[in-house]
């Protein structure tokens, strides 16, 4: 069971990790740290967790990462932060299944889908969370329009996952948000099976993955946490 202790403002810094021990500075419900926990689990990398409170950050965190954001990795005296940077670092440095493709165009494809996710899909989803009535329906329509890029990518590749026959880099970077979408995308905001057969099959398959199960919280937890903590899942913070 991962630790639930979280270091807050005024706390004394934890002892440095033992030599050779990878440390993840995290916050339990952070979707960005979740990205990195998924990669750690998928690659079977051993690590220890130090949780910080991202609302009342401990002063010592700024000395490690000037942005003081999670996830942050400490590894053999080195520091790596920003979730996608952390994930690429882990993928390059640690053995195990490779998550990023070597082939340049294939790697570019993943990067472009990530950009669509960041610039279009996630913001439109966030709008459905924040709005009501007609505005919400319009946001949901816009969300579906941009989600169709993911549907097309899976259709074109003929694979179950964005990484191919197994989840890869993009699967793990978008999944934490999709897991949280369960709090919103039901009732009149349910994704239609006829429009999104591939995305919905991907979602079902992702829920079955052991690394996803290890890292997840249930929808009830996300609902209560997002009401109390960050309706925007930390975005724009
Ligand atoms: N771009 C960063 C990444 O991809 O790692 C975003 C990370 C992020 O915003 N994490 C939140 C955080 O540390 C917690 S969910 N917030 C504290 C802050 O924004 O100062």
From TrEMBL:
It comes from the Eukaryota. GO terms for biological process: glutathione metabolic process. Signal peptide: none annotated. This is Glutathione S-transferase omega. InterPro entries: Glutathione-S-Trfase_C_sf, Glutathione_S-Trfase, Glutathione_S-Trfase_N, GST_omega, GST_Omega/HSP26, Omega/Tau-like, Thioredoxin-like_sf. It catalyses: L-dehydroascorbate + 2 glutathione = glutathione disulfide + L-ascorbate; methylarsonate + 2 glutathione + H(+) = methylarsonous acid + glutathione disulfide + H2O; RX + glutathione = an S-substituted glutathione + a halide anion + H(+). Residues 29-92 form the GST N-terminal domain. It comes from Branchiostoma lanceolatum (Common lancelet).
């Amino acid at each position: 069971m991962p630790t639930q202790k979280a270091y807050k403002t005024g706390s004394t810094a934890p002892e440095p990790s033992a030599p050779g021990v990878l440390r993840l500075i995290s916050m339990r419900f952070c979707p960005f740290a979740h990205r990195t926990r998924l990669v750690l689990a998928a690659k079977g990398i051993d690590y220890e967790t130090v949780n910080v409170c991202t609302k009342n950050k401990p002063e010592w965190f700024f000395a490690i990462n000037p942005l003081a954001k999670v996830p942050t990795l400490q590894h053999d005296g080195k520091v790596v932060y920003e979730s996608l940077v952390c994930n690429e670092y882990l993928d390059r440095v640690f053995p195990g299944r490779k998550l990023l493709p070597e082939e340049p165009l294939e790697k570019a494809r993943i990067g472009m889908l990530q950009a669509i996710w960041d610039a279009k899909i996630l913001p439109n989803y966030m709008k459905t969370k924040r709005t009501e009535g007609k505005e919400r329906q319009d946001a949901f329509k816009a969300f579906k329009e941009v989600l169709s890029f993911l549907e097309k990518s899976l259709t074109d590749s003929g694979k179950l996952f964005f990484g191919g026959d197994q989840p890869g880099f993009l699967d793990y970077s978008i999944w934490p948000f999709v897991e949280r979408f369960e709090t919103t995308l039901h009732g009149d905001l349910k994704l239609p099976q006829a429009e999104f057969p591939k995305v919905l099959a991907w979602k079902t398959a992702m829920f079955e993955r052991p690394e996803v199960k290890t890292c997840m919280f249930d929808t009830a937890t996300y609902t209560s946490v997002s009401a109390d903590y960050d309706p925007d899942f930390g975005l724009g913070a």
